[in-house]
Design brief:
The protein is mainly α. It has one domain. Helices cover 78% and strands 3% of the residues. The chain is elongated and about 65 Å long.
């Protein structure tokens, strides 16, 4: 059975079980978003912002080497962000599925795609960790070359993550499509 939505169109009638699932998914999304926000402030706002000095490979290298555990914490924060993004993709799908199943699925796939791209960008930070740690010895590389590689991988992290944010923007457009904003903007 379909019910007319106050925003226009129709939505499926929601059973008590589905309503319970929607509540659980909303709670999961809310908690995940809070965790994601805190991890983002730490990883990008605090650690990345303090350790990476744009245009200064030597200072960046020294910062990461001297604060290696902090840099590991940044990587852990990004992994937490990626995991919570996956949880939010599922939760938004469950929550929005009664409104429009196809758009909800598309929004979930876009967010999962963003999470995959974020995962690829995190690999660049792991390479930086390997280059700055004493776990791998590169006798043929001079310190300046190692520092240049570190900046290259940090730039690759930024670039790949930025491309992922474009996909994330597509997700936001999809999940916000049936809001009053769109109804007012298209009126």
């Amino acid at each position: 059975m379909k019910i007319k939505s106050p925003l226009g169109g129709y939505i499926k009638a929601i059973s008590e079980k589905d309503l319970s699932n929607q509540r659980k998914s909303a709670l999961t999304a809310g908690i995940s978003l809070i965790i994601m926000t805190l991890a983002s402030f730490f990883s990008y706002g605090f650690v990345h912002g303090n350790l990476v000095v744009q245009g200064d490979a030597s200072a960046t290298f020294n910062n990461i080497v001297s604060s290696n555990n902090l840099f590991k914490g940044e990587i852990l924060g990004w992994i937490i962000i990626m995991i919570t993004d996956i949880l939010v993709a599922w939760a938004f799908y469950v929550f929005l599925e009664p409104i429009n199943q196809k758009l909800s699925l598309l929004g979930a796939w876009l967010r999962l795609t963003y999470s995959d791209i974020l995962g690829v960008s995190i690999l660049n930070l792991i390479v930086v960790l390997l280059l700055t740690g004493n776990t791998i010895d590169f006798p043929s590389l001079k310190i300046e070359q190692t520092q240049a590689f570190i900046m290259l991988f940090l730039d690759a992290f930024q670039l790949i993550w930025s491309m992922g944010l474009v996909v994330f923007g597509g997700h936001l457009v999809i999940v916000s499509y049936r809001t009053r904003f769109w109804d007012m903007a298209t009126a």
